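Record type: monomer structure entry
Structure origin: computed from sequence
Chain ID: A
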Amino acid sequence: PLTAPAPMAASPEAREQARNENIVIYVNGELRPRAQAVVSVYDSGFLLGDGVWEGVRLVNGHWAFLADHLDRLFDAAKALEINPVLDRAGFAAALDRLATANAMHSDVHARLMVTRGVKTRPYQLPRLSRSGPTVVIIAEHARVPEVQQPLRLATVPQVRGTPMSQDPKLNSHSKLNCVLACIAAEKAGADEALMLDPHGFVNTTNMCNFFIVRRGEVWTSTGDYCMNGITRRKVIEACGADGIVVREKNFSLVDAYSADEAFVTGTLVGQTPVSEIDGRRIGEGSGAGPVTRRIQELYAEMLEGEEE
């Protein structure tokens, strides 16, 4: 007689998503079940993308580089004239409260969001936001694999904005330019989009900061048109302390195509290797190269130092 096949084990991603179905979310001082964590359709963030956000990572009970992330959040809020209501200690306490309520200790990514609040009418004028701001924090289980799958990048027509239009240093809810870049990359069969700056130099991906390694030197963009990434800065600092030459400079796709290694940086992923750019294999094309691996080690040591 035929026997039923054994049930397939759920993937790590599926197990993680199942855990996230039952989380509670911080909404304006209250902890609400995921299904009940809602904001008004008149909220500025929903209507206009009028708000700022920050991502932080929980590692062994410690929110990594939290002071740096809160500095960036408060700088952006001040530029947009949004009063976050909570001070730095208030945000730290809210994060800890959320982690405790969700029984979270490590392998967690939290997204802090502050919008201008609820409007009286659905128009742009900031003065119509009479109730607010709106503060939401989502903390999700998000485990980073020990061996990360290398990324394939595709250059896209969308370029990074200038400070005169929408300064890329504003980590705002308005991410349409990056969303369009992501769509273009997916259409090209890539994992992420590689975006150029207004002058045609390589800048960043739609989600992460971008680095290449050439003849032992680490190169990244000038920083003029990219998000002022916390992990980006930590990588630059780690390289300098370890004697690795790191240059913030303009470079072209020709330089990127012929790189020995490439990687992207982000709060959750740390440093993820890049195996391909526009169909050109980077390095061995199979994973992190020696310089990238050394930077990953240095970054792990920085995270451990944060915990002490």
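Annotation 1: The helical segments are 12-20, 44-48, 66-79, 88-101, 176-187, 230-242, 253-257, 290-307.
Annotation 2: The radius of gyration is 21 Å.
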